[in-house]
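Deliverable D4.2, example record:
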Amino acid sequence: MTNATIDSLIDGCRQGKEAAMSAFYERFYPYALSVCLAYADDREDARELMNDGFMKVFRRIGELKNEAALKPWLRTIMVNTAIDQYRRKKQSPTVSTEHIEQLVAEPYQNDEAILAQLSAEHILDVIHRLPPAYRMVFSLYVLEGFSHRDIADQLHITESTSRAHLTEANRLLRRALASQTHHTHEQHRR
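Output generated by the structure prediction step:
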C-alpha cells in the first residue's frame, strides 16, 4: 500500500467515511493484533482489546499530525488501551519483595539456547500464562521500553512493585520456557 493510499485512508477516516474506516481496520489489523497479544490473556481477549483500541483510533485520528508516524501512534493507542483495561480489572496479586528475592535465588539457565529452540508462538503462549499483573509489567518494560517509574505511574503501583513483578515474570518465563525446551528435546530424541 502506497503512502498516497494510506493518506487517503486517513483522510477518509477523519471524514467519518465507513469504507475508509473499514479499509484502515483491515490494513492495520495484523499489526494492532500483534501489539495486543502481548497484553491479553488469549487471542479472543486480544481481539477485544484491539477493537477497543481501534475505536479510540477513529475518535482521535484528527490528532495524528504526521502520517509517517502512524504505526508508533497506533501502537501507543493499543498499549494505552491495554493499560486502561488492566486498571479496570486491577487483578494485581500482592507479592512481597522478600518473597520475590527468595524465588529468584535459583540460577538462571542459558536464555539464548532456550529461546533459539522455541517459536514466537510458544513464547507468546507462555507469556499469556503469566498472571495479568506480571504480564502487563513484563510487556511494558520489555516490549515498550517503559521505565519502572513510568510503569508505576501508569498502573498506579510503586516502582518496587513494578520491579518485583518483572523479576517474577522473568523467573516464571524462564522456568516455563526451559521446561518446554526440555520436553521438545525429549520428544525429538525418541
